[in-house]
């Protein structure tokens, strides 16, 4: 296959970098730039696509709406019609009025206009832990996506309200592992392996379920009930070692790429990593393949990270001598193999911060983070491997208008968009999270 030639547009190091991806998207909408976005809905402007209240759009807009998925009503006109400066002023004023009563969390992939108001910026687990630093805050406003708000609710005190400013901010990857499908998968695996609870002569059960943090609370609860554990992109290897000490094999969901990249680095052969497609009997594998499996990979992926390609890396190397390519482990295996390094968002941030000489970095992760790093470290040349402007389009739904709306609601004594995990799910989900915290290399 012939490689597609790519023209990358690295950020100029001698000019200040605008960290706002939204400004770039609005320039595309206005026809002021020839750059493109990956999603025509984003190029329609936030209120045009948000005029269809509900789930998506974004990475998962072509998918069936998951059962019980939260629905967002339309934002009142006073917020939709306010400009960026007015919304910023209203957010600042509401936060000042609320003081210590509220803590605002901003994910690394969140848009800059929201992140500037965050008390903490980090990955989903760092932010859930940051909320623990504020046990007296009445409300935790989580500017991320739905599963992140659920995790914060699991770890926060019962009387604290966790708020997701836009209920339509889901995660397409998390939605790819539906609890009914996972329960069905477990029953089919029991048909192949027999008793799933009783250890064999070596003290190992047939399967340990492992879920990535990017999954619903229902999946974390399932994992907790079946002797399993949660992992992050930072500790996936440690968690898999924990699981292999207790089981013959691992059922890993929802992200096939994180599972495959991690297990491959641990020496698990690819032929012992069958994929589980929930729409097929036995996930699409034979019983013999399942019997031989070490890691069963759920058929899930991140729509943002799967856009990165080996061709983009080749283009970056051709155009930038000495470029250092770092990608996220949610990228496909061939991309991780072609990169110089792979690591979590925190790894990427620390790697750039630790570089003492001016360096050119080509980064394979979500563009809001890349753009912010480029602005934060002007001594380096930092650009996104993907030449198209492609944010996490579900997280992009947390427009500042929604943040202003929930904060002013709190000022008025009204809790809007509270995310609550029911006790039957929360208790086993916390068990799975506690196992992760206790798993040490
Ligand atoms: S970047 Fe991917 S995995 Fe992360 S929230 Fe967005 S869709 Fe989900």
UniProtKB/TrEMBL annotation:
Which terms does the record give in the GO molecular function aspect? 4 iron, 4 sulfur cluster binding; metal ion binding; quinolinate synthetase A activity
Organism per entry? Microbacterium oleivorans
Q: State the protein's name.
A: Quinolinate synthase
Record keyword Metal-binding present = yes
Uppermost EC category: transferase
Subcellular location per UniProt equals: Cytoplasm
Q: Which UniProt keywords apply?
A: 4Fe-4S, Cytoplasm, Iron, Iron-sulfur, Metal-binding, Pyridine nucleotide biosynthesis, Transferase
Main subcellular localisation: cytoplasm
Q: Which residues bind iminosuccinate?
A: 107, 124, 212-214, 233, 328-330, 345
- Top-level taxon of origin: Bacteria
Cofactor(s) needed, names only, are: [4Fe-4S] cluster
> For [4Fe-4S] cluster, which residues are the binding ones?
171, 302, 392
Which Gene Ontology biological process is one annotated for this entry? 'de novo' NAD+ biosynthetic process from L-aspartate
On cofactor binding, the record's note says:
Binds 1 [4Fe-4S] cluster per subunit.
User: What does this gene product do?
Assistant: Catalyzes the condensation of iminoaspartate with dihydroxyacetone phosphate to form quinolinate.
Q: Which reaction does it catalyse?
A: iminosuccinate + dihydroxyacetone phosphate = quinolinate + phosphate + 2 H2O + H(+)
Q: What are the annotated GO cellular component locations?
A: cytosol
Q: What is its EC number?
A: 2.5.1.72
Q: In which pathway does it act?
A: Cofactor biosynthesis; NAD(+) biosynthesis; quinolinate from iminoaspartate: step 1/1
What the entry lists under Pfam families is as follows: NadA (PF02445)
Q: Member of which family? A: Belongs to the quinolinate synthase family. Type 3 subfamily.
